[in-house]
Amino acid sequence: MRLRHAAIALAGLAAAFTALVVAPTANAADEVTHHEFQANCTVDHTANDDPIVYPGVPGASHNHTFIGNTNVDAYTDLDDLKQGETTCLVPDDQSAYWFPTLLRGSEPILTDWHLVVYYKSGIEDYTAVQPFPEGLRFIAGDMTATEQQFADAPGQVEGYECGESFFNWDIPDYCSSWLNIRYQSPSCWDGVNLDSPNHKSHMAYPVSGSCPSTHPVPVPMIEFKIHWPVQGDMTGVHLASGPGSSWHYDFFNAWEPDTLAAMVDHCINGGLQCDSRGYDLYKPHRGQVLDQNYELIR
């Protein structure tokens, strides 16, 4: 009897483990409404550094807020990132993410909450998206943009939002709730260069749902969703880079390759709406990529 009970228990554990195994492809019967997963990271520090634009020149940049990798300064390269820790939930996401600091006067406005970076498909054929190559880095947005250029930019998503106010191309004078912004990156890579002189031309936005021939490799479209704990009178609130239209951000990929590949395959290629563990709450039968410690299930 004890052996029978033990066998039943083991079968139950096996079934539970099987439920966690990653499904490599989408089930044709599943309705696909999303193709994404999240990186959730807290603020690590602020500094007048930018290892992409001003490598090796500390203090040369406007002030940035850094999330993700904790080993980032003006001298940071890929090897430094691989040796760093991370404020992201997933230990294997050692990427660096940074953006101009929001200030009230000269005081930084920061949050203790997790900030969300979505990894999505930027093309119609979400099954074709490939993981970022190690060391890829780029800038999304333009700190010299006018309000009209910011409004017309392919990466903008409803401008600055607060409460029921949307499509603000500069920081509003008044916010009834916390200020936030979403902005999408280009998602087509030239397949050769990990960077370019202007830190943009090796990347491109899709055209009519597909990557252009000059940038044929579809990679994840990342969407920064940044919020700040500031509301009410917004007098004196501004970006360190200038007006609200100067919004931009930097990304330096240092994901552990197998983990990123599994997340892209399961969540983006698989047509799921995943959290940071690669789990879709609405399709639990599809399993997940990472365990309770946010480590890859192998």
Explained architecture:
This protein has 298 residues and is of the alpha+beta class. Helix content is 14%, strand content 27%. A hairpin with a 2-residue loop joins β9 and β10. The protein is globular. The N terminus is likely disordered. Keywords: Signal. InterPro entries: DUF1996 (IPR018535). Pfam families: DUF1996.
Summarize the structure.
The chain has helices at about 1-20, 80-85, 145-150, 255-270, and strands spanning about 35-40, 45, 65-70, 95-100, 100-105, 105-110, 115-120, 135-140, 155-160, 165-170, 175, 180-185, 190, 205, 215-220, 220-230, 230-235, 235-240, 250. It is an alpha+beta fold and about 300 residues long. It holds the Pfam family DUF1996.
Largest sheet: 6 strands, antiparallel
- Overall shape: globular
What does the oligomeric state look like here?
single chain
Question: How many strand elements?
Answer: 19
Our Rg estimate from Cα atoms comes to 21 Å
Helix fraction, binned, reads: 10-25%
